[in-house]
Request: fold
Amino acid sequence: MEEKELYDVILELLRAKKGAALKKELSEQEPADIAAVLLELWDDHELSEEDLPIVFRILPKELAAEVFAEMDSDLTEALIKSFSDKELKSVMNEMFIDDAVDLIEEMPANVVSRILASVDPATRRTINQILDYPDDSAGSIMTTEYVALKPNMTVAEAFDVIRKTGVDKETIYTCYVTDAERHLIGIVSAKDLMLAKQDDTVSDIMEENVVFVTTVDDQEEVANDLRKYNFLAIPVVDKEGRLVGIVTVDDAMDVLQEEATEDIEKMAAITPSDRAYVRTGVFETYAKRIPWLLLLMISATFTGIIISNYENALAAQVVLTAFIPMLMDTAGNCGSQASVTVIRSLSLDEIEFSDIFKVIFKELRVALLCGVTLAVANFAKMMLVDRMLLHNTALTPLVAGVVCLTLVVVVFFAKFVGCTLPMIAKKLGFDPAVMASPFITTIVDAISLIVYFRFASLMLSL
Amino acid sequence: MEEKELYDVILELLRAKKGAALKKELSEQEPADIAAVLLELWDDHELSEEDLPIVFRILPKELAAEVFAEMDSDLTEALIKSFSDKELKSVMNEMFIDDAVDLIEEMPANVVSRILASVDPATRRTINQILDYPDDSAGSIMTTEYVALKPNMTVAEAFDVIRKTGVDKETIYTCYVTDAERHLIGIVSAKDLMLAKQDDTVSDIMEENVVFVTTVDDQEEVANDLRKYNFLAIPVVDKEGRLVGIVTVDDAMDVLQEEATEDIEKMAAITPSDRAYVRTGVFETYAKRIPWLLLLMISATFTGIIISNYENALAAQVVLTAFIPMLMDTAGNCGSQASVTVIRSLSLDEIEFSDIFKVIFKELRVALLCGVTLAVANFAKMMLVDRMLLHNTALTPLVAGVVCLTLVVVVFFAKFVGCTLPMIAKKLGFDPAVMASPFITTIVDAISLIVYFRFASLMLSL
Reply:
């Protein structure tokens, strides 16, 4: 069913107060769809703070916990406030650790203390450990609910373990084999177990060359590993090589989407936000954008200073002014083509700093081709359209020559700056995405103007 | 082992011609790592066209097919040319259908006909069917190798089916229940099967409310569904509701990464490419960039025409020229902040066309805050730095007023154009990502200049 349709159905049942029908309808839906529709109803003021817990209580227990984990933080906060301690405890017990941690990270302090009070001491300890890992590290996104097997178990015994504990595990399809000290010594997939003989031991069929990550590894690298190796989960070990958790593919996908969104935001000079655009308030949106606008505005005044220095030249040849925007825009576009390509390649792990000379050499050859093409096209356009068609007599072939020569040179500079800055930023430990279009544009603008006026001064003897 | 380390080890074993040690080393590695290292050796001319098939023949059969599927097309093409018909047949039989289709799409025609001749007629028919689906559709990325169960089977019988056919299936963790006409009537996870009683029937435990996609659905939507619902695979049905294939989560992850890269490239005015940056030649890179640069250069000449029209005003007040770059850059940055945010929200399915008024209302409020902040900051900077510190006497408070008033108005225009154009593009069936920064910048530049010169004419009586 389409989301719109589901929205209408649920709204109608809500208004008619048909609890049984509502329960039947909701039970057949995916948790993510229920969460999305509840959020829309909430935003449209069709679901009051009193109705929300009523709808929630209708859901079967397991589905309720899944919906809860998928919900927007505005809704979960309202729900928790309406929950009795017993209800909160029940939902928290059904949730996976990693979802519980996500929830806690989004809630205000008073709600967090209620949540932590509602879980048993062992879970609380685990949650606090995960919360202690650095932001965006493997440790901070992992879950501790994996199937652990021992090497001397038979396949039949392994199945028993899975049957007994599997319900509460985030995945049962990759099982982890650990020794007495919890060191990770192998993995077995459920497929291997199913295809093996019942009396084989786990150590017979386990894969010993295990790809793993450590708790402090960056979440983007972890997600890239899952993607590269086509894994359903990847084990996370601590400094001593002991297994402490796993990251599953569904979380890895979310990480990749978030990281791509963050890169895109940074490339457009916006401080990244965890919240979806539609869920972000006007003031918060403003706060994410204005620092960059101010910074870039201030740096753009350098270009103004350059122009002021050449005011006399400009006053003598006003025709030159008309080409400033075109030169600046073209240089900016060339620079951002190079920078964005390099930034994306860096974050996909396709290139690294040691490739810098290869990248520069390539960009300079591309720049030569682009620069010459643009210059030729522009010269033809200036002569045919501006001069012959529009009778702009101030635009002599010499002036056109200045403009086109400038184009070639600034395209070179733009591609060079565009490809080197992000790589140097990465090397120095900064985020390369911040070195994208807006910054490159500001730098390249200044270079363009200086080159332009130098050529103009020399060739037109200003 | 790090890739660099693996590279050195393999290179050493290759040079010393230690076949047995090489086999041992490679057998312990992930297919993706082997493929990556072989590509690097190939690029560094350490692996000749004669060595490549020798290394490949060393690999165990199943691993060889996996490495083959992960390889860059340059390598696979060289390998296929060196393969005997028997070898090609053996590798193709081990490959999953979706990987075979990917391979065929990348190979030149003569290689394709050899590949198709090497597979059995039934596989060839399936491959041809998949090749017939539109580019970037669910049908074009699906695989036909799924586990199909019947509703009246017992759990024990279902396990038998999985054990017998599972080796050749892309996933055995989600099984699909079909009726006699192959209509999809339910799904059962391997987890459900393991936790069920042996004599339960499949229809007892299957989930009947199945989320599915159709063969013609866009691959990005399919991947977003897998992410949203945390699925490991999603079924693909034809127009008659018959199950024809599945899309697995590993392919969905690749789709999301590719689509994000494409969006980023389009936002930077680059025609997207299927090949990684480092694998793309200079001329190809040039060809992906130059059309946009030319188009944007031509459209930037409109701003030149606007400036030409106000040449006399500029000649009278040369101080105005110095602020053109700052105004254009700031407007461009404001516009791309809005457009990039909206484009990303559109591709994450967070907003749709019907939200356009909500989005505009929000952007205009953000614009008001941003515009006023920028204007105040700029006025203060002009008076304190430019006028008092740098003694720029031409910069009267009235001129500063013109610049700052222009700022407020163009920020409004920029945010408005930035948020509406991508949404309208999407509505009209164009790709919203193309409406990103460079286009918005060109439009916003022209608006900025007109507003600037109108205000200047009115307030400074030029």
